[in-house]
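Backbone-to-sequence.
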């Protein structure tokens, strides 16, 4: 099954790709790698999941926020690849930043929201290397930001 067909079968709605908020581009293709810039918790222009893990945001909400970041990553990837995900050979790496209190230690569980989505959409090709770290703040007050690198055909 193609990645696009799998996305449709899963009834996953991708948000409209967000435009950059500063001096950068949302994606870069270098050789056979597609780099997707950090994506925040925005859905079709609506900012969601503001706050800090360990304070106003719980782990389950944080996972949902990371999943939303993952949806934005996939949306940006599809746009960069001409409207189809079928050139994606695998998700190589995911990086997750969690806006959290100094004593919060469950960053990996939060970023699993994005990692689980990659495997859901791309199957074994969605398994990736990863980092999940805490941050004192993130842009616009969101609780999670995630970026990714894909190998493409």
């Amino acid at each position: 099954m193609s990645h696009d067909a799998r996305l449709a079968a899963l009834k996953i709605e991708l948000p409209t790709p967000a435009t950059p908020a500063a001096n950068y581009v949302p994606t870069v293709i270098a050789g056979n790698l597609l780099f997707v810039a950090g994506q925040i918790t925005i859905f079709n222009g609506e900012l969601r999941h503001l706050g800090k893990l360990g304070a106003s945001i719980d782990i389950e909400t944080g996972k949902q926020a990371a999943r939303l970041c993952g949806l934005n990553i996939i949306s940006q990837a599809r746009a960069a690849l001409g409207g189809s995900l079928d050139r994606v050979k695998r998700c190589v790496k995911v990086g997750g930043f969690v806006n959290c209190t100094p004593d919060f230690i469950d960053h990996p569980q939060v970023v699993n929201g994005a990692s689980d989505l990659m495997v859901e959409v791309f199957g074994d090709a969605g398994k990736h290397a990863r980092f999940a770290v805490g941050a004192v703040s993130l842009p616009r007050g969101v609780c999670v930001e995630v970026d990714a690198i894909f190998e493409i055909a």
